[in-house]
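Table S2 (continued). Query chain:
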Amino acid sequence: MRATSKGLALSPNRRLLSRIIKSPKFESMVCALIFVNSIILGVQTDMTAQQNLRKAPPTLVALEAIMCVFFVIEILLRIGVYRWKFFYMSGWQWNVFDLVIISVQVIEQIMTAVLIEDEFLMSNFSATRVIRTLKLIRLLRIARVLHIIGELRILLISIVNSVRSLFWTCVLLMFMIYTFSIYLTQMVTDRRNELEANSQQVEALEVHFGSLGSTMLSMFMSITAGVDWAEVCTPLMEQISPWMAPLFATYIAFSLLAMLNVVTGVFVESVLKSQATDRDLFMVSNARELFQSLEGGMCSNMTWETFESKLDAPQMQAFLKAIDVDPSEARGLFKLLDLDGSGEVSADEFLNGALRLRGAAKALDVALLIQEVRNIERQIRQVTSHLS
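Corresponding output:
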C-alpha cells in the first residue's frame, strides 16, 4: 500500500515533467545551451592561444562546469520521465547520442578538475591531449540542434543523401582529368626531351606538367579556380604549339559549361527528393506522436472533440503546416480524413489521409477520380433506365 501510494503521488509530477520536456520552449532552451556551450569552448580556445596559457581562465572553466550540470539535469529529467522507454522509444538513437556526449563531458570535467589540482599531470602532454579530444567530441552535440531545427535537418539529410552522387561525380571528373592529363604529359615529355635539361623553357613546363600527378593537379585547379587557367595554358602555347590553346579552352568549356552544370542539376534534384522524403517522414512522425498521446495509442480512434482539443499541440500545428491547411479549416479536414463517415478517425485513416492530402494531386489520383466518376455515371444510367 505504501509503494502504491508513492507511485500515485509521483504520477502527477511525471506528467508535469513530461509536458515540460515535450514543450517547444524546453527544446529551444536546450538548443540555446548547446550553442552557448560551443561558444564558451571557442572563446576558451582563442584566449589560451592568444595569451599562450597552459590553464584555461577560471571563469570559463566555471562556465563549462555550469553547462555540464545543466546537461546532466536535462538527461536525468528525460530518463526520469521515460524510464526504460528512453532507450527504445521513437528517436531513441538521439537519446543514446545525447547520453554518450553528456557522459563524455562529465568525464572531461572530472579530468580537468584533476589536472588543475595536479601540476605534474598539467605538464603531461598526453593527458592534456586527451582532454582536448574530449572537448571536440562534446561539440558533436550540435548535431542535436540540426535534428531539432527543421531547415538545418533538411540540409543535413540532403548532404548525406548526396554523398553517393558526389562520389560518382568525383570518379567521372577524375577519369576526364586523368585522360586529358596523360595526353598533355606525353606531349610535354616529348618536348622536354628535345630541349636542354636546364633551360628556362623546360622549367616553365615542369612547374605544371613535370609528372602525371602534377598535370592532374593543374587540370583540377584550372576548373576549380585554384589557379588561373591562362597561367597553365601559356607554357603549352609558347613551348609546344599555339594549337594547344583551343584544345585547353575546349577542356575548360566542357568541364565548366557541360559537366559541372549537369552535376549541379543532379545535386539539386537529389536535394529536392530528400526534402520531400524528410517532410513525409516528419509528418508521419507527428501523426504517430498525436495518437501515442491518446489512451489507446495507435489502436485508438480520434473523435472530433479530441481532434479539436489537439489543435494547439505542436505536432498538430506541424501536421497542418505540412499539408498547408489553416486551423480554421480543421472541421473540413476531419471530414475528409473520416472516410467511412463514422465520426471517428483511426490511425491508419489519419496517416493515409495525411500523405494523400500533402502536395498537388498525382496523375494516379486524377486517374482514380476519373474512374470513380465514370462508375457513378454508369450506376446513375442503370438506375435511370430501370425507372423509365
